[in-house]
């Protein structure tokens, strides 16, 4: 693997810490580290083969619910998030996307990387199919939980976390299981 540019050293360190916490996810961590070492800017959506995105596991103040979006383009219920667009502080990307997509204020990022997910985005109009390397953080609501549906969503909904752990969507269920294990610990 090529060396990782200095500008990605903080994210690289976070990925190494994530590997220590979740050793069974070494393969996905390696995919993210390979992306960071690529000479094409992985924080730009212009890197058409794949690029970084920031995801928010947005939880209620009491930690029992998460806010999900019925994604307009993908037609699925997902966590909030979006493209890095050149920003390499992925926690800030996740926070910004959570604020923009929910209309909520008084949100805060908790801890380091919560989850990693590399997933395929199908071709759409003039954008070819490509990989999203989603770096996900816990974002907690601290004030009002009255959201506003943005143009990126068909709908938003607060959902109890526990039932999500048993859903067929592996990405959402994995995050729910991690959250419940963290909350129990």
Note down, in words, how this protein is organized:
It is a single chain. This protein has one domain: Nucleoside Triphosphate Pyrophosphohydrolase. The chain has 185 residues and is α+β, with helices and mostly antiparallel strands. It contains five helices and seven strands, in the order ααββββαβββαα. The chain has a four-stranded mixed sheet, with helices on both faces. A three-stranded antiparallel sheet has the order 3-2-7. The chain is 31% helix and 31% strand. The chain has helices spanning 9-21, 26-37, 90-102, 161-164, 170-184, and strands spanning 50-59, 65-71, 77-78, 80-83, 107-121, 130-141, 153-160.
Largest sheet: 4 strands, mixed
Number of helices: 5
CATH topology descriptor: Nucleoside Triphosphate Pyrophosphohydrolase
Low-confidence stretches: none
Arithmetic mean pLDDT: 93
Summed up, the domain count is 1
Number of strands: 7
Instruction: Give the strand order, joined by hyphens, for the main sheet.
Output: 4-1-6-5
In one word, what is the shape? Answer: globular
Secondary-structure-based class equals: alpha+beta
Share in β-strands: 25-35%
The CATH superfamily name is Nucleoside Triphosphate Pyrophosphohydrolase
Provide the fold topology.
Blueprint: H1 9-21, H2 26-37, E1 50-59, E2 65-71, E3 77-78, E4 80-83, H3 90-102, E5 107-121, E6 130-141, E7 153-160, H4 161-164, H5 170-184
């Amino acid at each position: 693997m090529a060396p990782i540019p200095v500008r990605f050293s903080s994210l690289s360190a976070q990925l190494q810490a994530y590997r220590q916490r979740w050793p069974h996810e070494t393969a996905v961590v390696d995919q993210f580290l390979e992306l960071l070492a690529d000479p094409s800017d992985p924080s730009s959506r212009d890197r058409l083969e794949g690029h970084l995105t920031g995801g928010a596991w947005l939880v209620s103040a009491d930690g029992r619910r998460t806010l999900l979006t019925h994604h307009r383009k993908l037609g699925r219920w997902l966590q909030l998030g979006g493209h890095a667009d050149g920003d390499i502080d992925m926690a800030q990307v996740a926070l910004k996307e959570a604020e923009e997509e929910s209309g909520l204020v008084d949100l805060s990022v908790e801890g380091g990387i919560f989850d990693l997910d590399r997933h395929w985005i199908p071709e759409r109009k003039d954008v070819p199919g490509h990989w999203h390397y989603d770096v996900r953080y816990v974002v907690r609501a601290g004030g009002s939980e009255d959201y506003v549906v943005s143009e990126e969503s068909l709908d938003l909904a607060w959902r109890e976390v526990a039932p999500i752990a048993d859903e067929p969507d592996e990405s959402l269920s994995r995050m729910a299981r991690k959250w419940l294990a963290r909350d129990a610990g």
